[in-house]
Design a protein that fits this description.
Blueprint: H1 28-47, H2 54-63, H3 70-77, H4 81-93, E1 97-101, E2 109-113, H5 115-136, H6 141-160
Helix pairs in contact: 1-5, 2-4, 3-4
């Protein structure tokens, strides 16, 4: 255990002095969750004037990559397919995307952004970029790149472990 109060060591074993033997604030998951919730709240606030949620934007942005299906979006965003379908329904009602039959494989649903959807992706992307600037503003350029690398490596490592 570190003597410096602001310097945390990730939990590796039970601490007999902590309630239940575990110090929550020493868990990477605790800090990642707090970071995510802080970002999400700010993104919700920024997207509200656009009448878009962060989840809708993620679906819209992923759709804009082209040749996406509801199943591929669900996999990419780690959402269940029924949630993606609900988001697609809402985005279609807002005239931000169109669904149709895939031109090559009629069993697949094709997804295409409307002109309004393309504009919305660009407007919302500016807000996402600003949030990223604010988060990475806690670091110098090298630390920011390291932070992003650590996050990516952690996700890749957990996937290899079967998470």
């Amino acid at each position: 255990m570190n003597d410096t109060p602001n310097e945390l060591t990730p939990v590796q074993e039970l601490d007999p002095e902590a309630p239940g033997g575990y110090r929550l604030e020493e868990s990477p998951g605790y800090w990642l969750h707090r970071l995510y919730r802080t970002m999400e709240r700010d993104f919700q606030r920024r997207l509200a004037p656009l009448h878009l949620t962060p989840q809708e934007w993620a679906v819209l942005k992923t759709t804009g990559r082209g040749d996406q299906t509801p199943a591929s979006i669900a996999q990419e965003l780690e959402m269940n397919s029924s949630a993606v379908t609900r988001f697609l329904d809402r985005l279609e009602q807002k005239d931000l995307l169109r669904r149709g039959t895939h031109p090559v494989d009629r069993r697949r649903t094709s997804l295409e952004l409307t002109d309004g959807g393309k504009r919305m992706v660009c407007e919302a992307a500016q807000e996402a970029i600003e949030i990223n600037r604010q988060i990475l503003g806690a670091f110098d350029e090298t630390e920011g790149k390291q932070f992003m690398s650590f996050l990516q490596r952690s996700v890749e490592h957990l996937r290899k472990l079967g998470f």
